[in-house]
Amino acid sequence: MSYVDEVIETIIEQNPGEAEFHQALREVMETIRVVVEENEEEYRKNALLERLANPERQIKFRVPWVDDNGQVQVNTGYRVQFNSAIGPYKGGLRFHPSVNIGIIKFLGFEQIFKNSLTGLPIGGGKGGSNFDPKGKSDREVMAFCQSFMTELYRHIGADTDVPAGDIGVGAREVGFLFGQYKRLSNSYEGVLTGKGLTFGGSLARTEATGYGLLYFTNAMLKANDIDIAGKTIAVSGAGNVAIYAIEKAQQLGGKPVTCSDSTGWIYDPEGIDVALLKEVKEVKRERLTAYAEARESAEYHEGKGVWTVKCDIALPCATQNELLLEDAKTLVANGVLAVAEGANMPTTIEATEYLQENNVLFAPGKASNAGGVATSALEMAQNSQRLSWTFEEVDLKLKNIMENIFANVAAAASEYDMDKNYVAGANIAGFKKVVEAMNAQGIV
Ligand code: GLU
Questions:
Q1: pLDDT digits (tens, 9 = 90+) for 119-167
Q2: E-strand spans in 226-303?
Q3: Model confidence over 245-298: pLDDT tens digits?
Q4: Residue of 105, 111, 383 to mutate, ligand 1, most atoms within 8 A of C-beta
Q5: Biggest CA-to-CA distance, the chain
């Protein structure tokens, strides 16, 4: 059996019940096979793939807090410090009822390669909790965040591990987490990114994942002689990634016509009104029904359905495994030209393969959504310098980073005779740098 197959089998056997982690592992391993097989015995002897697939450290802890009725609640907290070969662990925290160790490990594993692709010195990590901020009062969210940080603070630090936001963790949560870290550690340091602008946050961090997705997508389209101007775009999600993807898509002349949340979706043939979407989601924290009520051209539908809308470009920006094989078939039947992932692993492996077989340009999240974490690394750089850069400076750096990622991903795919296979290109380019650093640092 080949070394790659052996490792896939062993890691899955040793980590039962972690379906999303298995999926992420399989996708990476299958595409880096060509690199490993150039020098299989060397990789096997050094157990490089086992070391890559086993986190350096996994932390799991109890998070007790008191709700507004005086009832004690108990959630589970996680931080997986996956790989520190190229820099301190870096990656967000996700607060969502679906969080379990398999979800955090898939996200942490993806983060290793994503962070490597940014070209910045950041290792891979991820954390979170099965806590659901939805419907909780600000005081309850604060109580939870303070309890969560009371355990986490001993494991993190500006040069050790720097968490940030992800689903369910935005500016409010990062603020509460930062306050508690500072109090416990007696240290004012850039230990979290995505901070508020008055206490060390970076301009353009809020916009970065969505804007970066469009910079990457535009670079990919241009390289394939497609102009984004006038193209109809289907977007899923209505969180931070989706909102700023829609905003930048409009600035580039595209026409986003959909968005979605956990209960339903919007089709707005006139084009999404971003100001209204921000008001509904960022200010009022309401459901998308409120968007439909305020806008005549918008249709609201219950359940899932954005991929049934005829579009040229699809941008899944909600969550993992939201774009299935049948969705891919509908998109292809409707003539889609490109799919670019704003969320982490939103497309299943079967759907990805179907899109690629049908010549749809496909941008994997670990490349196309890397703008968020890249800008987090820029926030870390500003914190270390005790300086703040302007919006234009950060945005320009972000644009350059995303265009470089596209160029490196495309070049890695071509080098291994897989022209335009950006999934393989991203995994190979991300992997090579990390492995070189791991090798240079010996058996650790
Ligand atoms: N959660 C984001 C991601 O998936 C950002 C992480 C960060 O800024 O550290 O990359």
A1: 999 999 999 999 999 999 999 999 999 999 999 999 999 999 999 999 9
A2: 232-236, 255-256, 258-260, 264-267, 299-302
A3: 999 999 999 999 999 999 999 999 999 999 999 999 999 999 999 999 999 999
A4: 111
A5: 64
Distance separating alpha carbons of residues 141 and 327, to the nearest angstrom: 36
State the number of CA atoms in the 13 A half-sphere of 99 facing the CB: 28
Contact 61, 80 (CB under 8 A): no
Amino acid identity, position 228: I
The atom of ligand 1 lying closest to the CA of 369 is 10
- From the CB of 93, is ligand 1 less than 6 Å away? no
Is residue 237 within 8 A of residue 262, CB to CB? The reply is no
Chain-centroid distance of CA 148 in Å reads: 22
Cβ 179 vs Cβ 215: under 8 Å: no
Protein residue with its CA nearest to atom 9 in ligand 1 = 91
SS3 64: strand
pTM: 0.97
Atom of ligand 1 nearest to the CA of 111: 10
126 is catalytic: yes
Asked if residue 344 has its Cβ within 6 Å of ligand 1, the reply is: yes
Give the CA radius of gyration of the chain: 21
Ordered structural domains, the chain, with CATH: 3-189 (3.40.50.10860), 208-363 (3.40.50.720)
